[in-house]
Amino acid sequence: MVPIQFITHFTERISYEESALLALQGGCRWIQLRMKNEPDETVEPIALRLQKACREAGATFIIDDRVRLVKKIKADGVHLGKEDMPVAEARRFLGEEFLIGGTANTADDVLRLKRESADYVGCGPFRFTTTKQKLAPILGLEGYRTLMHRLAVENLSIPVCAIGGITLADIPEILATGVRGIAVSGSILNAADPIQAMRDFIAADS
């Protein structure tokens, strides 16, 4: 089974909340609620419903960026982008009982996030994607190989999750670099059958 994190998004026919529920139905057990430009008062009721659904499914539920909301509703954790609250500050605010993930584009980013006590790193983009337009450069397979080699040289262990335009066919080669997990969004929601697409991603290379 491939460790898959689903990041909520929307299409003309699927809402943020529905996207997460489809991923859960497809067997995903790691959901990140990402609603970047919405106010907390819009996000909170959705977060509470999804948190309940995740708990019922035995899934981890994290929220993008909103550290205070995470603490308020006692979500499992938070994911912090490069322009969000620093991981070290979030750790001081949340304590050790919450998961904290950070966004990385380089090996130096990963090393810094590890020092700041991140539990995992979302690293990309693998290829261009509209959900990660501000990250550069594109890593590709060679970028992940170089990054994972650097971590090995530094004797540093932290779960790295690849992100950015990843398709089903990409998974075996990405995992062969030493990356531990895959984050997906558009590849699931743009599929004719999102639930089956999620099942396929989880079963890939197993």
Key terms:
single chain, 206 residues, alpha/beta, 8-stranded parallel beta barrel, globular
Give the SSE map.
Layout: E1 4-7, H1 16-25, E2 30-33, H2 40-57, E3 60-64, H3 67-73, E4 77-80, H4 87-94, E5 99-104, H5 107-115, E6 120-123, H6 140-153, E7 160-163, H7 171-176, E8 181-184, H8 186-189, H9 194-203
Parallel strand pairs: 1-2, 1-8, 2-3, 3-4, 4-5, 5-6, 6-7, 7-8
Distance between the termini: 5 Å
Helical residue percent band: 40-55%
Quickly count the helices. Answer: 9
Structural class: alpha/beta
Largest sheet data: 8 strands, parallel, barrel
Q: Summarize the helix and strand pattern as letters.
A: EHEHEHEHEHEHEHEHH
* Arithmetic mean of pLDDT: 94
Strand ordering within the main sheet: 1-2-3-4-5-6-7-8
| Integer-rounded radius of gyration | 16 Å
Roughly what fraction of the amino acids lie in strands? 15-25%
Q: Which spans have pLDDT < 50 for at least 5 consecutive residues?
A: none
Overall, the morphology is globular
How many beta-strand runs?
A: 8
Oligomeric state, counting identical vs distinct chains: single chain
